Amino acid sequence: MNNSFGNIFRLTTFGESHGKAIGGIIDGCPAGHKIDLDLISYEMQRRKPGQSKIVTQRKEDDTVEFLSGIFEGKTTGTPIGFLIRNKDQKSKDYNHLKDSFRPSHADFVYEKKYGFRDYRGGGRSSARETACRVVAGAIAKQLLKNVDIYAYTYSIGTISLDDNYILDNQKNIENSTVRCPDKSVSENMINEIKNARKNGDTLGGIVKCIVKNVPVGLGEPVFNKLHSELGRAMLSINAVKGFEYGSGFSGTKMKGSEHNDIIKTDETTKSNYSGGIQGGISNGMDIYFNVAFKPVATVMKDQQTIDSKGNESIIKGKGRHDPCVVPRAVPIVEAMAAMVILDYYLINKTKTI
Length: 353
Prior knowledge:
By secondary structure, the chain is of the alpha+beta class. It has one domain (about 5-350): Chorismate synthase AroC (Chorismate synthase, AroC fold). The protein contains seven helices and 16 strands. It has helices at about 35-45, 105-115, 130-145, 185-200, 225-235, 255-260, 325-350; strands spanning about 5, 10-15, 20-25, 65, 70, 75, 80-85, 150-155, 160, 205-210, 240-245, 275-280, 280, 285-295, 300-305, 310-315. The strands form five sheets. The protein has a five-stranded antiparallel β-sheet with strand order 1-2-3-7-4, covered by helices on one side. A five-stranded antiparallel β-sheet has the order 9-8-10-14-11. Strands 5-6 form a two-stranded antiparallel ribbon. The two termini are about 35 Å apart. The mean pLDDT is about 90.
């Protein structure tokens, strides 16, 4: 099992959804950088369960205990070890899964691959693990002082922002329960989630992320292009089914003469179909991409499945689950983007002497 991500700035995570704790080790973090623990706590609050009535009601403080690598408020250059204790597990809610597999979950493949699985909340396959990524991302953000990374909810179910929507106030993101910066669209999204939950169902959606002030030259062609690493990072997040950057699939409908980026000298008109990356290398323009999240697989309805002996059976979701993961996924997307940008910034430092 591969539990590490990154090259120089590298995160290794451990723990299960219903274990005593989850945690991680961040290796390769440069020394001497001041770390604001309040900012880390802020990012954790954005991801934690129980933050509103439209997400899972599991109650976790998600307080981070740093064990090493930070002294007198600064990074020491040694591995940063941290722990996040689990406090509100209700493992009995998963007893019915001991010998059955939830459709579209990792239950079946984990048991077939490893011959054994932790069925409590999905164990290692649970999105609970992503809390560790948010810790590392919060540190990466603080080292990327001039780089601005923000994501927001672009769509939930059939409710979406306009294709030509332009974010004019970043603060509006956190003013919304679903982290959609448009107030009216946000309210429609909330109602959509409430209706799905009432009917025992779930919804998916799209998170859009924008990265500003990225230095020119990040990315390692040919197999470690910047967009391929961002895609790998996003596709490693639970429930992610798609990644597109720049013009994405819509660009296939354009002619080459239309698709080429244009920047006028007065900068009054510019296009950025490349999404800030050309040849796998950042070009200094804004990097932007979309991340598609599937509807949550656990639904409060009867579903046909099989048990561990291969017999057909009926299963129904129990316990506390998100009817839509998209609002809580926004800080996770930002965290993974921050880790990739910092990692490739550090790699770039090794290219000249």
